[in-house]
Design goal:
By secondary structure, the protein is of the alpha/beta class. It contains eleven helices and ten strands. β8, α9 and β9 form a beta-alpha-beta unit. α1 packs parallel to α5, α1 crosses α6 and α4 packs across α5. The structure holds tetrahydrodeoxyuridine.
Length: 297
């Protein structure tokens, strides 16, 4: 999913990274395969108060506001409304615009403290709650509330943020995140889009795509983009990497095998292409690898 950010209030970048991952999971969980976009504004209480007053005649600040662009018939959500999504296609963003979200940054931190969980979980929850509204869910009636909660929980557990099990991202969700990252590939020269999703020991996921360059050799593969994002955020313990492409199995190239080996010689590698999935251990892909341990001997 494309998130069009408007950030008026500074926020920990770890929260916006997680929100992107959660948004990708939302489309996967709902079964939407179309490219979709949502605008996300992060602001303070005064700004959200004003928006609430102007557009909803509610004279107070709140945590999240959703303004759907698509009007779904009752009982229908985005996964079963392909025609409506197509009508919401926007040329400028080259995606279907689902609507706008506004989140109060002070509310994220305040509510996290109140509920005794991390600001990461609160930010993911509020974004997912808002996205569910943009996908046609509501919580006025008991029955629809149950469906909305179930979808919220499905999305949050896909990013390892469910209430019960912290940090257990399934292979299926990781593969979906790699496929979603493919959408952000910058590959105008090879036209071979690759996406990766790297699962860390603490449950965090970093996504990456291949980024090409007019000076061809400057190209960075999807796997290394994900690893470099993780390492630059202080994370070096990796358990699984999922890699997605179309047309051919995207087994990592030699350079990526070497970079993965530096941090995680025991990592599992999942690849997916054209609906197929295959798996190997990095040890099989890079036998007798040379790494930091060899230098210490
Ligand atoms: N590519 C990856 O992103 N990962 C790999 O492991 C193999 C190759 C990218 C690099 C380049 O942008 C395109 O695929 C064609 O080589």
């Amino acid at each position: 999913m494309i998130l069009l950010w408007e950030i008026d209030t500074p926020v920990d970048p770890a929260l916006t990274t997680l929100m992107q991952t959660a948004a990708d999971c939302a489309l996967w969980a709902e079964g939407v395969s179309r490219r979709c976009a949502v605008s996300v504004r992060l602001c303070d209480d005064e700004a959200i108060h004003q928006i609430n007053r102007t557009f909803r005649q509610v004279d107070r600040a709140t945590d999240v506001l959703s303004f759907p662009m698509v009007t779904y018939p009752s009982g229908v959500t985005a996964g079963r409304a392909d025609r409506l999504l197509r009508q919401a296609y926007d040329d400028d963003v080259d995606a279907c615009m689902l609507g706008d979200l506004v989140l109060s940054v002070p509310h994220i931190y305040r509510q996290a403290e109140e509920y005794g969980h991390s600001p990461r979980r609160e930010a993911a929850y509020l974004l997912v709650h808002g996205l569910c509204h943009l996908m046609g869910y509501d919580h006025m009636e008991d029955e629809e509330r149950k469906e909305m909660r179930a979808m919220e929980e499905k999305i949050l557990s896909a990013v390892g943020m469910s209430r019960e099990e912290q940090g257990s991202v399934s292979d299926e969700a990781l593969l979906a995140l790699a496929r979603a990252a493919m959408e952000r590939s910058y590959s105008p020269y090879s036209h071979f889009a690759v996406g990766a999703a790297l699962l860390c020991e603490d449950g965090r996921v970093f996504q990456g795509c291949n980024i090409e360059n007019a000076a061809f050799s400057m190209t960075n593969c999807a796997e290394r983009t994900a690893v470099f994002k993780a390492v630059s955020e202080g994370e070096t313990a990796f358990t699984t990497i999922a890699i997605a492409a179309s047309g051919a199995a995207p087994w990592p190239c030699g350079a990526c095998r070497q970079v993965l080996h530096e941090f995680a010689p025991d990592i599992r590698v999942l690849v997916t292409w054209d609906g197929q999935v295959a798996e190997a251990m990095l040890k099989e892909l890079l036998p007798n690898g040379f790494g930091p341990r060899e230098l210490m001997k």
